[in-house]
Every structure is written in structure tokens, then in C-alpha cells.
């Protein structure tokens, strides 16, 4: 049995490896977690993810910039790759899947990649379509993967209007899917006007909203099924 | 008595450090409008591929609204294309979509040691842009200054390789990135030289990839500034360094680059920058091209001109490309307001 002290030490190492974007230490610590028989979920959430939360804070405080964020994410993924196969069930209250991409005509993908990372961290299954994504592709991918959520990013006022087309099209084909939009020119107002379910100004809020949306979606589904079987 | 004989005269005197009657209102970045395209009957996608259309579209912003310059091109892909990237102009779509890079030339770290193709200045659309500069000079060059832009080496690097990789390598392998930026600085110098030969009056170097929204001031100073200096040393016409987004912490470095003027956007506190850089520095900016010029009411358009001037800009200049959908009445209001300062 692993001692409390050892556990603490490993969590601390995982956390710091992420903060100091040290992939090697993240890998080593993750392996040790498995060797000593510590719980993988615990290591992910109280080690790696808790490091990433601190990174988010450093980013907001402008002590970290985008390159640091990307390197921290690499360290996190390095640990995650080792731990994930040993997770019984990632339990966040919800398990979700999400289609994400930057809309056609827009190559600004730095923000989208950060949002994507948050979903990865939280254990979502992410289908990343990349940038400059033809509008039909979002609908196609959602139908193919039956994802709970579609996230659209746009950084320009001209490409932003493409989101409305995707929203209308998705709604027509699959009224139940949740849609979230973001990017600098987008606002809560626009999201409401165009009928998106959510908007978030940054990656942290995006994740929180997404979790709420998906839990409500799951509840609806369960209720519907319960009604059917009655 | 200050005697200004044309908008071009005013801008050139400003660059030369002479006294002028009022700040000019112009730009070093793209400024084509949907209104201008309508007048000419051109599709947005077509004006990037034809020198005549490019020049004519650019000139409409002066002709219709009195904007005090003509600038070509409109997209950020020219140098990358000459280096071998493939571009997409979205010819199949009616909407205004800006050209993007479809295929990059560097895919792995090992491919970063690139050689600049010989005769770079004759490749891709560089001859086309030169021709557009000549046409534009002939058309409106007597009245307004004719400008063009090149990308800064870091922003150009982000066009020819995956930006995520570039950002990470800036930390992990700064030497390697430095070598690439050095080569790209040479490329930019070649291209800028060709534009000078075509007769351009001023050149803006756009290094928006290095904004403090993305990159720390420390990396900017250590890794990027040296290559910007190298470029500005070689540009002989008046030059401007443009960086959008957060720039308050890097304006002193920008001013050190050797550019004749620096250009910032609405996220910069110009009053503060003016204090930092002193009376003599040429600071262009920081007019919000979308939230004010496109989406604002004419009153806000006018107030914003006042604010820029009061904060101490040397030229009222949009923080990025003029957005094509600008309402004509807003554009006119902006120009009317700045002209009030004249006489
Ligand atoms: C870097 C950059 C570029 C790079 C992009 C490289 C890349 N791979 O991303 C390059 C040089 C290629 C580029 C090109 C152009 N650009 Co540019 N660019 C920028 C810049 C400087 C930074 C953007 C950025 O990455 N910010 C940092 C990230 C972290 O923030 P973010 O994207 O906002 O993301 C956060 C949130 O918005 C949110 N979020 C984002 N997506 C989503 C999605 C969801 C679902 C949710 C919930 C949340 C969310 O969470 C993120 C994390 O907190 C901005 C100006 C600026 N300082 O913002 C201009 C800017 C976006 N560009 C602009 C322009 C005009 C262009 C060009 C058209 C220029 C031209 N003449 O060609 C071209 C467009 C090419 C094209 N067709 O796409 C304008 C757009 C203006 C407008 N009215 O729309 C801007 C705003 C500059 C300006 N001041 O006007 N650009």
C-alpha cells in the first residue's frame, strides 16, 4: 500500500511537472504512480489537472504566454498518455464528446487549441477538425460521431457569420445537439441571437458551461427514455 | 507658416520629422472597402490575383472617402507564397474571405533550415504587387502616398510552418528559431527592396504574431527584435513597425527597432506610450477598425478621432486592416473629423 507521504510527493511532482512544462518528469512520475499502485484518477485530477489549473492562473496573470501554455499541455499529455489506460472510469459527473474547429476562411486557431486542450484535460472525447473548416464538415462530423457538443471558433467578424449557417444546419438535422461558440468578436448577445446554447469568453468558462450543458442534455435523454419505457 | 501641398506631402514631411498642420489619417495595412468593390464590380477573391484590379480597388478608398493613402496588397500570404507555400483565395465563395495558406513548406523541425530560393523577388505574386504599386502611383501617387507591407520574420515563420510548433520551439530551441528568422529576414529584405524599386513611398512591417497576447515581452526582445533591426537597417524608404493587440510593455523595444514609426492598435494606451517614448517618437494608431469604424455610430467615429489625437498619435491610423464592410457614412465622418484640425 502506498503511503500518504509518497502519494503527496507524487501528486506534487506531477503538478510541478505540468507547471514547469517538464515532460520527462511528468512521464517518470506517472510511471511511478502505476508502480506504487496509486489510483490513476487521483493522479490525473489532483496532480496533472491541478497543475494545469495553476497554469491557467499564470496565463491570466500574464506570467505565462501561449508558448508556455502549449508546453505545459505537452507535459500534461505526456503524463495522461501513461495514466489513461489505467483509469477505470473518468468520472466528472458527465462523459462528453465534442466536435471542435475554427470556421471556414479563418486560420486563427491559437484560441481554439487552448479550448480544445481544456476538453482533453477534462476527459472529453475531442474531434478536432482544425482550422479553416468547411461549414458542412461540422454537421457531417457531428452526425458521424454523435457528439454531444459542437464548438465553433472564429476570430474575424467576416468568418463569424459562417457560424450562424452551421448553427441553423445543425439544428435542422439534430435538434438535440448542444452548440457553443467563441472567439474574440463573438459575444453572449450574438450567441443568443443566433441560437447557440452557449458562449464563453475563455477556455475555463467554456469547459464549465460545456459540462453543465451536457449534464442537462443527459438528464433530458434519461427522462425521455424513462417516459418511453413506462 | 506651414505649407502642405498634398496629403502625400504631409505624410512625407511627418516621416521626415518636419512640422505639419495636422496628423494625417492613413494606413500601412490593407484598406479595401466593399463600397469600392461594388463601384468597380469586382469580386473580393479576384483582386488578389490581378495587378490592375488590385491597384484600382486600393485607390477607391482615397477616391470615395478621401483616405490619405493607397496600399497594396490586401492579404498576408505574398512572401509565404513566393517561398513555396500554396494559398487559397476562396474563389468559389461570394463572401469576403481573406486568402490563407493552404500548404506550408516546413512540416518538421528538421525542415527548418531553409534556403531562400534564388530570385525570390521574382516569384509568386511579388511582380504582381510591384506592378500594382506602379499603377497605383500613376493613378493617385501625386496626391496621396503609396504604401505596401511585408510580414515580420516571426509572423512569416508562422505562415510557413505550424504556429504551435514555432511557439514552443521559441522556448525549447531558440537558436534554431533564430536561424530561421535570420533567413526569413533576408527574404523580407529582398522583397522590400523590390517594392522600393517599384516606387513605393513607405513600407510597413507587420509583426502581429509577436503580440503580447501571444508572446512574452522577454521573448520579443531576445528572439525577435534583433531580426527586425536587421530588416529596418536595410529599408531605405520610411518604415513602420506594426504590432496589434497588447503592446504596452513592448513599445520601448518597438521604438528601438529602427523603424521610422511604430504602429499600435486600440489595446495600446497611447497616452502612456507617448509618455514612455517622448515627444519626438512617431506613434501611429490606434483607431479601432471594427468596433468603432464598422460597428460604431458616426458620433463615436468622430469622438474616437479626437481621442486618438488627444492621446498623442502622430497619425490617426487603424489598428489593423480597414474592414471591408465599413459603412460609407462612418468613413466619411472619420475623414471630416480629422480635416477639422487642418488650416
Ligand atoms: C496571431 C494573429 C494572426 C495569425 C494567426 C495564426 C494562427 N494560427 O492562429 C496570422 C498572422 C496568420 C493572422 C492572419 C490574419 N489576421 Co489576425 N490576428 C492575430 C492576433 C494578433 C492574435 C489572435 C490570438 O491568437 N489571440 C490569442 C488567443 C489565446 O485568444 P483568442 O483567440 O481570443 O481565444 C480565446 C477566447 O477568444 C476563447 N475562444 C476562442 N475560440 C473559442 C471557441 C469556443 C467554442 C469558446 C467557448 C471560446 C473560444 O478562448 C480562448 C482562450 O482564452 C489578433 C489580434 C489580437 N491581438 O487579438 C489578429 C486578428 C484576429 N487578425 C485580424 C485580421 C484582420 C487578420 C487578417 C485578415 C489580415 C489580412 N489582411 O490578411 C488575416 C486573416 C487570415 C484568415 N483568412 O484567417 C483581425 C480581425 C479583425 C476583425 N474585425 O475580424 C485581428 C483582431 C487584429 C485586429 N486588431 O484587428 N492573424
Secondary structure topology:
The complex is a heterodimer of chains A (230) and B (343).
Chain A (H helix, E strand, L loop, with lengths): L3 H16 L3 H13 L4 H21 L5 H18 L13 E6 L7 H12 L3 E4 L6 H11 L3 E5 L3 H17 L4 E5 L5 H7 L3 E2 L3 H27 L1
Parallel strand pairs in A: 1-2, 1-3, 3-4, 4-5
Helix pairs in contact in A: 1-2, 1-3, 1-4, 2-4, 3-4, 4-5, 5-9, 6-7
Chain B lengths: L6 H10 L17 H7 L10 H15 L4 E2 L6 H5 L3 E3 L11 E4 L22 H15 L5 E6 L1 H8 L2 H10 L1 H24 L4 E5 L10 H18 L4 E4 L8 H6 L4 E3 L6 H8 L5 E5 L10 H14 L3 E4 L9 H12 L4
Parallel strand pairs in B: 1-4, 4-5, 5-6, 6-7, 7-8, 8-9
Antiparallel strand pairs in B: 2-3
The structure holds cobalamin.
Description:
The complex is a heterodimer of chains A (230) and B (343). Chain A is α/β, with parallel strands linked by helices and 230 residues long. Chain A has two domains: 83 residues, Methyltransferase, Methionine Synthase (B12-binding Domains), Chain A, domain 1 (Orthogonal Bundle); 133 residues, Cobalamin-binding domain (Rossmann fold, 3-Layer(aba) Sandwich). Chain A contains nine helices and five strands; from the N terminus they run H-H-H-H-E-H-E-H-E-H-E-H-E-H. In chain A, strand 1, helix 5 and strand 2 form a beta-alpha-beta unit. In chain A, helix 1 runs parallel beside helix 3. The radius of gyration of chain A is 19 Å and the shape is globular. The mean pLDDT of chain A is 88. Chain B is α/β, with parallel strands linked by helices and 343 residues long. In chain B, strands 1-4-5-6-7-8-9 form a seven-stranded parallel sheet. In chain B, strand 8, helix 12 and strand 9 form a beta-alpha-beta unit. Chain B is globular and about 55 Å long.
